[in-house]
Every structure is written in C-alpha cells, then in structure tokens.
C-alpha cells in the first residue's frame, strides 16, 4: 500500500520540491494551506504538480485547526515546513514568528501524540539556530546554539521540543538542521533570489540599481531540490535522529553578487549595487558553514548541484521570467 505524507508549508520553496519527490515515490501527498481567499500556487505550478496534491486548511497558530488536520489525514509522515521563515521580518514580527515557528510546532506535536502517534515527524530546523554559536569554523550536530534573531530563537524552541517528544513519549520525531538552500522558486525577499531577480531586471532595463545590506556575510548555499531528499531519508531510518545538512563550503554575499552579474552578462556589478541600511539586521549572523559528515555517512547523502551551478540556474530562470514579462508588456 502506498504511504501518505502531510506537508505543511506546501506553497513555499521546499514544499513543492518535497511534494514532487514524494509523488515520484507514489506517496499520497496532502498539503496544508492557510485559509486564503486567493492562495498562491505559483511554486507548485512551476514544478507542474498543483493538481496532484490533496489540500487541507490549517494554520500553525491555531491549535484546533492542526488537531483537525491530523485527525482527518492521519498520515504516515508529517513534514513540518511551515514557518515565518524570513529572518529580517522576525524582529518586526517577533510575536507572530514565535507563535508560528515555536508554539505551532508544539501544537502539531501534541496533535500527533494524541491522535496519530505512529506518524513520523520531520521538523525544519535551521543553521540560523547556531547564530554565533561556538565552532571551529564550521557547525555540526555538537555545536552550541547562540541564535541572533527572534526567528532563530523560535526555531531552537521547536528543535528542542521535537527532541523532547521523542525522549518523553517515544514518538518518531526528527530534525534536519538545514543550511541555506535556494532555487528558482526561492522567495523574492531572500538575498539570493533578490540578487538574481535584480540582475534580470537590470539586464532588461526595468531597474537601474540593486539595494542590498551586508555584503560580507557568508552562507553555505545549496540547492533546495537536493535538500528535500535528505528530509525523506531521515524519516525512512530505523531510529529517529537529527542531522546537519549543508555543502561544507561557504561564500560571501559579494561573491554571489559578482557571479550572478557575470552570468547575466554584466561585468561591472559595482555600478549597480548600492549599500542600503534598511537591509542590515540588528544582529547579524556573520558566517555559517556546515560539517555534514553525519548525513553523508548515515544517510549516504551528498548534494549534486554546486554553488556555481546554483547561481547560474537561478540567474537563467530569472532572465527567462523577466524577459517573458517584458515581452508581454511590449505586446500590450
Ligand atoms: P518559505 O518559502 O517561506 O515557505 C514557508 C511556508 O510556510 C509558506 O508556504 C507559508 O505559507 C507557510 N506558513 C507561514 N505561516 C504559516 C502559518 N501560520 N500556518 C501555516 N502555514 C504557514 O520557506 P522554505 O524556504 O520553503 O523553508 C521551509 C522550512 O524550512 C521553513 O520552516 C524554514 O524556516 C526552514 N528552513 C529553510 C531554509 C532555507 O534555506 N530555505 C533553511 C533552514 C530551514 P504561505 O504561502 O501561505 O505564506
Ligand atoms: N534578505 C536579504 N536582503 N539579506 C541580505 C541583503 C538583502 O538585501 N543584503 C545582505 N543580506 C545578507 C543577510 O544579512 C544575511 O547575512 C544573508 O544575506 C542571507 O540572508 P537571507 O537570504 O535573508 O537568508 P538567512 O540566512 O537570513 O535565512 C535563510 O536561511 C536560514 C538558514 O540558515 C532563511 O531561509 C531561513 O528561513 C533559514 O532558516
């Protein structure tokens, strides 16, 4: 019999890639969406799977809705990807970020414990939990957490609660501590997509500047399509466990900018990029770099797309997207 999976955050970046993977493995996929008068299926459309998913309404900040979702679906696996995931907004919306990213996870775990205790649970933990945590130039499963944002703090709560439900009630609950992963359907606020979209707009004359914050921050950037594979593998293991997932190399925002402009056929990026204090953070995470040895060894996981291939893929997708839009505008 085929397995079933519930994905929260189905309309975001990772949800569609994960849904596509699970559909290819013959899962019945349920996608939890918030109540909306007009939900945005753009990312699922991009991967061509909008009609292959069963949708159910639920909101991470509403416990009764999550109880209902779990009672109705009783899936074999839950992948909790829903979050207020933009770090920058988490200072401006600290309460909402805490309700959705921290308390919402407690509600979901409780619902599973009460109404579907055999369900396996994946929590989308994050390298942002490390913040300026102790490391020897990298972060692994042993590194201390010292989050620097309300987002990171809420995610530490959710991470520890996920472990606590495993230890207290014997539930199959896992966390993937994923480092930054990107794609052509990355949200437009995140720096990579903001850059590749900016390059395309400049290229086609729709913008003449790109306003950015801290160009010196370094991140360990991988491709989202590679990372959802590890979420799936974690829930197929004999025992629940937590894993760090990243490429093991990092690059500065400046390096990303330079490469993206090069792929866009623009050599003098300095002419277009403007430093703007609005995009700097009250407390920055200066540098993140994964040591994903455990995932490589126990899950036999390795990323396929390199940093350069990722930047190229994103620039090409945005050039195509912006060109299509400007062609349509020209033709009236
Ligand atoms: P994303 O594109 O921002 O998607 C998040 C999804 O969560 C959106 O579809 C959003 O729904 C949904 N959501 C937000 N608030 C909700 C609520 N109150 N109730 C129900 N759904 C809600 O994020 P992503 O990049 O796919 O990341 C997936 C998960 O991995 C997130 O938890 C993120 O924090 C975590 N993570 C991401 C990365 C990364 O680099 N991408 C790294 C580590 C961890 P709407 O579409 O309705 O807004
Ligand atoms: N968004 C943004 N916009 N970031 C900028 C900008 C800008 O104009 N200029 C510089 N940056 C810097 C940020 O200060 C940060 O150091 C870095 O670029 C990356 O920012 P984001 O792309 O917004 O990602 P993030 O690292 O803060 O968070 C993402 O990765 C986390 C995993 O480490 C998100 O996907 C989180 O949800 C995820 O947990």
Automatic annotation (TrEMBL):
Catalytic activity annotation: GDP-alpha-D-mannose = GDP-4-dehydro-alpha-D-rhamnose + H2O
E.C. number: 4.2.1.47
GO biological process: 'de novo' GDP-L-fucose biosynthetic process
Record bears the keyword Ribosomal protein: no
InterPro entries in the cross-refs: GDP_Man_deHydtase, NAD(P)-bd_dom, NAD(P)-bd_dom_sf
Record-linked Pfam families: GDP_Man_Dehyd (PF16363)
Family, similarity comment: Belongs to the NAD(P)-dependent epimerase/dehydratase family. GDP-mannose 4,6-dehydratase subfamily.
PANTHER family noted in UniProt: GDP-MANNOSE 4,6 DEHYDRATASE (PTHR43715:SF1), GDP-MANNOSE 4,6-DEHYDRATASE (PTHR43715)
Protein role: Catalyzes the conversion of GDP-D-mannose to GDP-4-dehydro-6-deoxy-D-mannose.
Record's protein name: GDP-mannose 4,6-dehydratase
Origin species: Candidatus Roizmanbacteria bacterium RIFCSPHIGHO2_01_FULL_39_12c
